[in-house]
Design a protein that fits this description.
- The chain has one domain.
- It is built from 17 helices and no strands.
- Helix 2 packs parallel to helix 11 and helix 4 runs antiparallel to helix 6.
- The longest helix is centred in the middle third of the chain and has 35 residues.
- The two termini are about 25 Å apart.
């Protein structure tokens, strides 16, 4: 399946994800307001951190090697079994930490011990999150795009219904409960869809632990963990700085613009994960790699620029539709946030080469360095220019990141 067909098939799933995100954002805006949205954003980043630790950062590695072993059933079985055992061990540690440290974690991340039970609930259900993620990674690696997209649509619909009901019923408390339960229930969607699957079945996970596969996966575990931890941790630090120096409502405005950015970029990021990672992983010849990258830039970048321009023109209307009039001050954040988004997607197209070709050291160094630089730039620029400074930091940081990853990956595309 080529890039155009994958992109077209992804539209339905993307549309559902966008509808889900917009509906949830509207419910949050109405029932918890800017300050509550900042709390939800902080907790969402915490959930991302815990899930990364529980999954041992293996999603990318499982997708890559599933694609690479497409013609070798024995290696595929050893891969699945080894990945499952690695995830089981890390998931158990994280689950015990969440249950045992519930009060302390609730106090630190949510400023109250009242939500300790949400932490315990997360600890009980996190294993279901991990299994759901692993099965989706395998589907992605097998390049069964239609099945992958159908599962994503159904899971998005379930998430939408569950989350909105909980927010309307319980306000902030409902939003937090939804964050730690929606993917657990979504697992049953993928299990139902995979019944009778010829490759993904119980016997495919019963092979002995394989040290060779474990070592192969460990590189991606390290890269995946660094990437998945860096992003939410960076957002936590930046949001915390905004809350302390400017105000919690302003932190809510930053969270709101981040939501909008995430929603419209879903159109592109799904294509990157569904098509580019397995495709680049399985492609060795440099000429083919260059053609895939050029096709990506020719199709994806114009799409991103059109979306960004459309979002900018309709920014006032979007604030009223997606949020409420209470969020009107966030209008000043759009211009440089959208510029940064376009540059971000340009850099991600090249950065996927580092993942696909297991450039472990380069990937980790760039992730850590540019995550730290974003935090530092945000602190300096918000102190000097106010809240809009964080969008300056976003655009500037991704400009530097694009230059760096282009230099590091030039051996593959020159």
């Amino acid at each position: 399946m080529n890039l155009v067909k994958t992109s077209l098939l992804s539209l339905a799933s993307t549309a559902m994800k966008m509808l889900t995100a917009l509906a949830i954002s509207k419910a949050l805006a109405i029932y918890v307001g800017p300050s509550g949205l900042a709390v939800v954003g902080q907790f969402h980043n915490f959930v991302q951190l815990m899930l990364t630790a529980a999954k041992f950062g293996l999603d990318t590695g499982v997708t890559k090697y599933t694609a690479e072993y497409s013609q070798d059933a024995d290696r595929r079985t050893r891969l699945f079994s080894t990945a499952l055992r690695l995830c089981a061990g890390s998931c158990l540690i994280v689950a015990l930490t969440l249950v045992a440290g519930a009060k302390s974690l609730s106090l630190y991340f949510l400023q109250t011990v009242d939500f300790a039970y949400v932490m315990r609930l997360f600890g009980v259900t996190i294993g279901l999150f991990v299994m759901n993620s692993m099965l989706l990674s395998i589907l992605n690696g097998l390049q069964e795009i239609r099945t992958y997209i159908v599962v994503n649509i159904l899971q998005s619909a379930l998430t939408l219904v569950l989350t909105v009901i909980l927010i309307v019923s319980l306000n902030l408390e409902g939003a937090l409960i939804a964050l730690v339960t929606n993917q657990s229930l979504a697992l049953f969607v993928v299990l139902w869809k995979l019944r009778g699957h010829l490759i993904i079945r119980f016997t495919s996970f019963r092979a002995a632990f394989d040290r060779v596969e474990a070592l192969r996966l460990s590189k991606f575990a390290l890269m995946g963990s660094v990437s998945a931890i860096a992003a939410p941790l960076t957002n936590i630090l930046v949001r915390d700085h905004i809350t302390r120096t400017i105000g919690q409502a302003e932190a809510g405005y930053w969270q709101a613009i981040w939501y909008i950015s995430s929603v419209y970029l879903t159109v592109v990021t799904m294509t990157l994960s569904v098509y580019f990672l397995p495709k680049l992983s399985a492609t060795i010849e440099k000429g083919k790699l260059r053609r895939e990258l050029l096709a990506g830039y020719a199709i994806i970048m114009p799409t991103v620029m059109v979306f960004a321009f459309g979002v900018y023109l309709s920014r006032d209307l979007l604030i009223r539709i997606v949020f409420t009039e209470e969020f009107a001050p966030m209008v000043e954040l759009f211009r440089w946030m959208l510029v940064g988004d376009v540059i971000k997607l340009a850099s991600w197209l090249v950065a996927y080469l580092m993942l696909a070709k297991a450039m472990t050291k380069s990937f980790i160094v760039t992730e850590v360095f540019f995550s730290a630089s974003f935090v530092l730039l945000s602190i300096v620029l918000t102190d000097n220019y106010g809240l809009v400074g964080v969008t300056y930091a976003h655009a500037l940081n991704y400009s530097m990141y694009l230059f760096a990853v282009a230099i590091l990956t030039q051996q593959f595309w020159r």
